[in-house]
Amino acid sequence: MIKVLLLLVFIISISLSKSSIKLQFVTDDNETSPDLEFGVDENATFGLDEELGEIFAFDAPPPSPYYIFSLLNFYDSTLNTQVWGNKDFIPLPEENAEHNHKFRIWMDGGRKFTIKWNIEGINIDSAKIQDEQGGQFINIDLMDGDSYYWENENVPSLNLRLVVWYNSNINSVETNNNERFLVYPNPLQDELKIDREFISAKIIDINGRVIKDFNNQIVNISDLNSGKYFIILHTFDGKLESSFVIE
Angle at Cα 235 formed by Cα 179 and Cα 170, nearest 5°? Predict the structure, then answer.
């Protein structure tokens, strides 16, 4: 299968400013909860960032017509207390780090529902929804699919956490601006070749999902769909970031 390489890889010299995960909860009756959004932003603090849409909320569901409702709970360093809201952005990490975003779902009378999610940005390496017991009962891998069906209708509320492993790729490139690497051949076929040595590498899609991890200069890409992708090389001198488009 022949795929056309529309754009040769180039070094990304600008910093991407935001990566996020959006969760939506939909019942079998098609009732929806307001979305929850979690992530990192270059303008975020560990307080309530109203300019980023973080708005204070009470820790209880509103009256009807909500049959399902969700809120997240996070620590506000400016108020020195826990607060509730629909969005929680933290500062961009200086190094790879895990962060737990806690949230609660209320189901009026108990409901079956579907959790849907969307991931954007390139510095989310992994994300899982777990129960507060460390995933002993609920352990949903958000990097494997885009929805999950909850069918236990006898539970009136759930206390969960979103465990995200954030990487620092967007602000930690340590390399010469003139240093490049080439992806070939052109047109691109089932194999992607890189013209320099490196320690490890990964291909990431535009939603921030890691598609492939590899450490060889030749990698099979016959299973990739059309679209834009990022490549991050870890070299002995630092990191190189590039992108390419497959038609």
Answer: 75
